[in-house]
Amino acid sequence: MSRTTVASEYSAEIQSTPIEHRFNPYSDNGGTVLGIAGKDFAVLAGDTRHVTGYNINSRYEPRVFDVGDNIVMTANGFAADGKALIDRFKNQIKWYKFNNGGKKLEMQSAARYIQQLLYGKRFFPYYVSTLIAGLDEEGRGAVYSYDPVGSYEREQCRAGGAAASLIMPFLDNQVNFKNQFIPGTDGKEKRPFEYLSLQEVIELVKDAFNSAAERHIHVGDGLEILIVTKDGVRTEYSPLKRD
Amino acid sequence: MPGLNFDNYQRNQYLASKGFSQAKATSTGTTIVGCKFQNGVVIAADTRATAGDIVADKNCEKLHRLAPRIWCAGAGTAADTEMVTQLIASNLELHSLYENRKPRVITAMTLLKQHLFKYQGHLGAYLIVAGTDPTGAHLTSVQAHGSTDVGEYLSLGSGSLAAMAVLETNWKPDMTREEAMQLCSDAILLGIWNDLGSGSNVDLCVMEIGKDANLYRNYMTPNVRIAKERSYKFARGTTAVLQTSVRDLLDVEETVIPFGQKDSDAMEIEA
Amino acid sequence: MEHNPFKWGRPDDAVYGAYNHQIAEAGVNSLFPKMNTQNPIITGTSVIGIKYKDGVILAADNMGSYGSLMRFSNVERLLTIGENTVVGVSGDISDAQQLARYLDSLELQENVYDNDGENQLKAVNVHEYLTKLLYHRRSQMNPLWNALIVGGFDEAGEPFMKSVDLLGVSFSSSTLATGFGAHLAVPLLRQVIPEDKKYVDVTEEQARKVIEDCMRVLFYRDARSMDKYSMVTIKKGQELKFEKDLVVKDQNWRFAQNIRGYGNAQQ
């Protein structure tokens, strides 16, 4: 049976616009996360806004978690996948202890295990950007970051989630001193890397999130910073703009 | 022929099919409201403009003047609300000059709806038109496709539901000017806090019968940014100088030489 | 005219051929691929909830919509589980009834295997169970088409309210609403509790009033809602208060008396 249509330019427009017929198992719940490694500490921060579309679901829904063994973790993006991933990892830490006489799971082992969890769903991925932070075997701050299917890297700092593209260049410049030269060397000598103090890092994190909240609609309400030192995990909360 | 130009329509469709996406227009996500009171009408708007998830403008103006006593709040595509409003403001002025009468709200609304209907919704302008004229105070809304609506209280934009919630619970007939201002600003505030497309400040405009319209730009500013924790001043020399090029300033002198006249004559015009 | 009423409204065999009964057994013993829920059929609209200093209040209307048809007006969408946990369900009603069945058997299991009188099933546990269930179903691409709000108490006996939807996305707040309520009711609820933790300053009367205001606004503005609803008050140290057949109070349609037309003439 043929369909008669009045010829018009707009008919092409209608046909080229895809109409969704299938159930879409993913959504985006906004929020942004940020991890920075220091000399003998590491921080993982995230805002506490939970969204769908133009709605704020909750102004306080924690997205960074203490998963035990002095490791903090976040999986930002599609919240249900994030929760599933973190729950699975927490569970595995528990089993690791049962099987190994309560042994601590080291950062690099944790990092590799999370790769396995993510890659295990290679063809139905967890739609999240994952970050973990803690201390390595020498007691230095460590941050590991992942793509949705498990490619990972240890880094000095990393931003993830909605406003990652706003925060990351700021971090490159302020943490790794990219594009900065030593004054008087006429651009011959790059400003060398040096560790920031915990105080400086926290200030940087707050400024990054306040700025992201100004310009990204999915960021705001509250900022929760989890700080890992040899003495354990500590949490700091500060409010962000709520509009 | 005046109006929009569709010459590039086919080219754009072709480019889109090759994966070149269309330019993204700035949209005014927006909460806008209007409410009548005993002796006039109030309209109000938030001041956030967005381009996708990014805030494009933190303090834009969504209250437009159509005539001295007729104002309009716009939601939708920023450029469309701006241009359609300017066009109708001009036509309204010409019409009022020709007829030698004060412009009326119903005229503004009719010009808007006829213009928007002609463009079949392709102009993304959603407006609340309000004002006072010789027939009294009026409040109407116009949708992009050209349909109109009149009401005692109206709201439009992505935050219209949040705003409508407060309008529906707190509205009452025959409010005073102050009560109406309070209601409208409350409605906008609910949009600002609860709708991600709306934010920053509240703009408000009061039009009272027999008086000049009052625009309260930034009537409320509940979203002032707090001070930064750190200073981001760079030491001089942090940025490498890759190339230097110094030019001398040129002095351009201009001398006017009178032509075909005696130099004394030129000055006599004034005398 | 077809004289067999059984065939009324069915595809005519003369036109479409005989019905292939394999379709009904899709995915079991047939060549037809199994098809999962693609969209909801009979639906319930918003569920709204608020925490207050002594507990939680949930409300949902009694309508079951079939598209734009008001098909049922006696649907109970607030399900009680155990002593003081209530689940408010919106979305597909058949899936909601399936959920009710799961929850019934969960409660039964609790009572049979854990009847020491202590460690009763709490709202947190019910929520965790539902979150896992809904996430599991979405991962099979066979979702239960619902958005739920679970109200009750947490392990410490403090007021608890958390929601979960068909994707398994869950979040908690002192003010929650599904569907249209997320747009219309939440802003009003947040006027009473601007800060999440401040629910402890809210009295039962305040909470009840704002819920009634929300149900009125929803009835005004949600075209898939009705003015008959149920409300549950879950209060510390008290038996659960379940009120049925409440009617939206203080409706006011007086604004209409001054409105003439749509701005088409000087009326």
From TrEMBL, chain A:
GO terms for cellular component: cytoplasm; nucleus; proteasome core complex, beta-subunit complex. One of its GO terms (biological process) is proteasome-mediated ubiquitin-dependent protein catabolic process. It comes from the Eukaryota. InterPro entries: Ntn_hydrolases_N, Proteasome_bsu_CS, Proteasome_sua/b, Proteasome_suB-type. It holds the Pfam family Proteasome. It is found in: Cytoplasm; Nucleus. Transmembrane segments: none annotated. Keywords: Cytoplasm, Nucleus, Proteasome. Belongs to the peptidase T1B family. Component of the proteasome, a multicatalytic proteinase complex which is characterized by its ability to cleave peptides with Arg, Phe, Tyr, Leu, and Glu adjacent to the leaving group at neutral or slightly basic pH. The proteasome has an ATP-dependent proteolytic activity. The 26S proteasome consists of a 20S proteasome core and two 19S regulatory subunits. The 20S proteasome core is composed of 28 subunits that are arranged in four stacked rings, resulting in a barrel-shaped structure. The two end rings are each formed by seven alpha subunits, and the two central rings are each formed by seven beta subunits. The catalytic chamber with the active sites is on the inside of the barrel. This is Proteasome subunit beta.
TrEMBL record, chain B:
It is found in: Nucleus. Gene3D superfamilies: Glutamine Phosphoribosylpyrophosphate, subunit 1, domain 1. GO terms for molecular function: threonine-type endopeptidase activity. The keyword Hydrolase applies. The active site is at residue 30. GO terms for biological process: proteasomal ubiquitin-independent protein catabolic process; proteasome-mediated ubiquitin-dependent protein catabolic process. It catalyses: Cleavage of peptide bonds with very broad specificity. Its EC number is 3.4.25.1. PANTHER family: METALLOPROTEASE TLDD (PTHR32194), PROTEASOME SUBUNIT BETA TYPE-7 (PTHR32194:SF4). The 26S proteasome consists of a 20S proteasome core and two 19S regulatory subunits. The 20S proteasome core is composed of 28 subunits that are arranged in four stacked rings, resulting in a barrel-shaped structure. The two end rings are each formed by seven alpha subunits, and the two central rings are each formed by seven beta subunits. The catalytic chamber with the active sites is on the inside of the barrel. This is proteasome endopeptidase complex. Keywords: Cytoplasm, Hydrolase, Nucleus, Protease, Proteasome, Threonine protease. One of its GO terms (cellular component) is cytoplasm. It is an enzyme of class 3 (hydrolase).
UniProtKB/TrEMBL annotation, chain C:
The keyword Nucleus applies. Pfam families: Proteasome. The keyword Cytoplasm applies. It is found in: Cytoplasm; Nucleus. SUPFAM superfamilies: N-terminal nucleophile aminohydrolases (Ntn hydrolases). It comes from the Eukaryota. Its main location: cytoplasm. Transmembrane segments: none annotated. Keywords: Cytoplasm, Nucleus, Proteasome. One of its GO terms (cellular component) is cytoplasm. GO terms for biological process: proteasomal ubiquitin-independent protein catabolic process; proteasome-mediated ubiquitin-dependent protein catabolic process. CDD domains: proteasome_beta_type_4. Signal peptide: none annotated. Non-catalytic component of the proteasome. Belongs to the peptidase T1B family. This is Proteasome subunit beta.
